[in-house]
Design brief:
about 200 residues; alpha/beta; nine-stranded mixed beta sheet; about 20% strand; globular; binds iron/sulfur cluster
């Protein structure tokens, strides 16, 4: 297992119930399937060249919100298909996002999570930080990998560069039917730059 790449400051901002964010978009149609409530988390260690959201990088930037307040806002719009965690790097603050994702899932809505880490790296990191694995479990779709300017592709759905992947982590008919079921710790099939897999049984 490689070193945990989370910077020290990241541990201080990942408290259950409170989340440091850069902002929200109450209705989006470009950050996952259907109409979505998007939370842009604050803090990112990846420093991708050409990043479109550089103001999300600073760990102490943005502002702190209570996750119950975000849930209240989410519940106000019955037309929403789900919530999207973007950034910034959502996996710097997995604990409050796990709480929020679990509440959204209880409402029958879905969860999309963007990350600059790869799925494999997160699965590895989850061995020491279980809340990372929990957020993977609760994410219906994970869009992973850093933005690589050399592989920039404006035609890709949800993604900015060709190395990034749309990983279906849940077998949900409203998202991507027909996926195989297995744990995120297992191996997976890769086809056409999409990985179809399913996390463990729902433990919410
Ligand atoms: S992971 Fe996203 S927010 Fe972070 S530097 Fe890369 S493109 Fe920017």
């Amino acid at each position: 297992m490689g070193p945990d790449p989370l910077p020290d400051g990241a541990r201080q901002i990942g408290q259950t119930g409170r989340l440091r964010i850069n902002g929200i978009v109450e209705e989006s149609v470009v950050d996952g399937p259907g109409l979505r409530f998007v939370v842009f988390t604050q803090g990112c260690p990846h420093n991708c060249a050409g990043c479109h959201n550089p103001d999300t990088h600073r760990l102490g930037g943005g502002y702190v919100v209570e996750t119950p307040d975000l849930l209240r806002q989410f519940r106000e719009n019955p037309l929403l298909a789900g919530i999207t965690f973007s950034g910034g790097e959502p996996f710097l603050q997995p604990a409050p996002l796990v709480w929020l994702a679990a509440q959204v899932r209880r409402l029958g809505k879905n969860v999309v999570t963007f990350t600059g880490f790869t799925y494999e790296k997160l699965a590895d990191m989850s061995r020491e930080r279980p809340e990372i694995g929990r957020l993977l479990d609760l994410s219906d779709i994970l869009i992973d990998g850093p933005y690589l300017e050399d592989l920039r592709d404006l035609e890709l759905q949800y993604r900015g560069s060709g190395n990034q992947r749309v990983l279906t982590l849940r077998d949900r008919e409203d998202l991507r039917p027909g996926c195989r079921h297995f744990s995120y710790e297992d191996k997976y099939d890769c086809k056409n730059n999409h990985i179809h897999c399913a996390a463990r049984a729902d433990r919410v």
